[in-house]
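During the reporting period, our protein records have gained a structure token line. A sample record is set out beneath this paragraph:
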Amino acid sequence: MNYSELVKLALEAREMAYAPYSNWKVGAALLTSAGDVYKGCNVENSGFTATNCAERTAIFKAVSEGVYDFKAIAIVGGDANEGVKGYCPPCGVCRQVMSEFCHPDDFIIIYGKSETEYKIFNLREIMPEAVYIVSDEGEGFKAKD
């Protein structure tokens, strides 16, 4: 699957967003190493800390089905009425969740505006100092290398 197709799926996921408080709809499409895609959208709550971002929705959906090997994620976001006009980088919490499951040099993050306009980064570029629990052996990265 190419990046344009992944952005298109993120745009589709954005349509499902529940954002009555911020009016900011976000969609994400997570590509697994096996080629499957898990879509997610933001789901807001009046108790704002209970809100879940699109990126985490997609990742948690995959993890809840036993999938842990991820290749890339496309993210799109924008005002519900105006549409996607700019890039929508992931928040710090989503970056940390990605760091839990994804290799920092190999996992690709795509900020999309459209199927033809997007920026590409690896996880290390957007989260150079992730928090890792280091074991007694000095190993902190838990995902498969």
Summary: The longest strand covers residues 70-79. The chain has one domain: 3-126. The mean pLDDT is 93. The radius of gyration is 15 Å.
